[in-house]
Amino acid sequence: MNATQHATRNATRSATRRREAARNAAPHAVLGTGIGWRPEIAGAVERLPGLDWVEVVAENICPGHLPEELRRLRERGTPVVPHGVGLGLGGAERPDLGRLVALAELAEALQAPLVSEHIAFVRAGGGHSGRPAMEAGHLLPVPRTRDALDVLCANVRAAQAVLPVPLALENIAAFLAWPGEELTEAQFLTELVERTGVRLLVDVANLHTNHVNRGEDPAAVLDGLPLEAIAYVHVAGGFERDGLWHDSHAHPVGEPVLAVLAELCDRIAPPGVLLERDDLFPGEAELAAELDAVRAVVAGARVRA
Q1: Domain 3-304: what homologous superfamily?
Q2: What superkingdom does the record give (predicted)?
Q3: Distance separating alpha carbons of residues 90 and 57, to the nearest angstrom
Q4: Where are the domains of the chain?
Q5: I need a surface site. Which of 106, 107, 118, 205 has the fewest CB within 10 A?
């Protein structure tokens, strides 16, 4: 057995023990209302009233050199969830061990209750060819076929074997559907959960995006999901142009996205809801108002229930 195989085996055994302990201690972390932590709004995030938790882009954070503002949030007990964008779990190749170990180390350094990633592929090529893989620079949709689902499930299991905490996967936005798809979004996600035990990160902005761009009914998707598997929810802003919805993360969360959030909240009280903003950052007051709008939707659904 070579050094890489030893490292994989040891990481797998250690992660399995930690993951089982985490599941026994807190099977479903209740997160509350949070925001995506970004350096551009770090100061504002620290001051936001009633903020329950934050999410960080995993590839942008070094466990040994946490930004000062993020370290202070951790010290006052604010949970931090790493959100990966680079594993490419929907790709043909198994997830890179180095990327998995880095994500596991970050989860441990942040004492994260879970980590999340996307149901997407982000690179192609490489493998045994000797050439480096080509990076897409974007989250690309996985075809909803049985073969693609088999590959995704195998990659998810490989990731779960290394990660020390539960993994949640996010549905992504797309401009178009692959030809020859065999499963609906809800069927694809449900079978993924049944076969791997993975949790779901439901992005309601992406459901709205796919409604506009692909004609998919968000309510029908939600009706078909295993709601008990939801770990948390994303909301984000976007805009429509020439009949297509662009999931920009650079605009305020509009009524159509909040309406999909209300649809979800009518079915289940989500463990957590997180606001994403990645560009054209507004002032602190506007961020606080957006979080209040999210809280009002969640609270209104509870009243109706």
Answers
A1: Divalent-metal-dependent TIM barrel enzymes (3.20.20.150)
A2: Bacteria
A3: 19
A4: 3-304
A5: 106
